[in-house]
Structure prediction request, 301 residues.
Amino acid sequence: MRSRFESDRQLTARMLVTMFLLGLVYVAFVAALIALLDSLTLVIVIAAGLLGAQYWFSDRIALYAMRGRLVTPEEQPRLHGIVDRLCAGADMPKPQVAVSEMDLPNAFATGRNADHAVVCVTTGLMRRLETDELEGVLAHELSHVAHRDVAVITVASFLGVLAGLTVRVAFYSQLFGGGRRDQNTAALFAAVMAVSALVYVVSFLLIRALSRYRELAADRAAALLTGRPSALASALTKISGDVARIPTRDLRTAQAFNAFFFAPALRPGSAVAVLFSTHPSLERRLEALAEISARLSGDTR
Prediction:
């Protein structure tokens, strides 16, 4: 799909490299497990089926998990109006539009491609933002769809879960399934767990690097499409400030979707936010938007 969103060759290259490296890692990982353990075939087949389901039905799964529902233009004329304008300006198909009845101010896009995509916003976000700020957030989410990174991050994130699930099932099947429990067996499983830990760490670093860059790319594309980077910066500032006032229980519920959110469901400044966030820091995003604003205004100082 081609759109008027500014193409980002660095993002495309990073997505290709990330998926290629993850593919190599997991092919080697599964091959090693099959060679070491003879009880994994069914597990791998089931896991592959789950991956396929995640890819084909990611939009429905995400909506269900976030208590979102599709809305019509009659139900949400303001929201549909903004999406209509942005899609017309970007020359891209209009995704389905959904609303989640959550006070957490956030938005996300999901789906395997532009023809099977959903953009969802929370009622907390709509209540807090002005129209131009909401437009910036929606342009950010639409750029994820246009750049196809939604599908890539969906698959990449699921592969980490797949590795953990495969090793866990293998471990418990051997632990409770009988068989020899000698020093060779202990050494074998120590090796399996060490390899799995290495795979997880490599996957974690690759996914975090891609995720942080894709958020900067989406900010940049949205700012250039709308021509109002200041509105997007204002939305970011409001959301980050209000997330700190959301109850911890609600934040924990939403954290599984941090890789897809416009802003992470983490308290700003916490050690967890710095080390494990799927997004660049607020300061980094605001700095990048300020540079775009200066460029658009012709200030080259």
Q: What stands out?
A: The longest strand covers residues 117-122. The chain has one domain: 9-296.
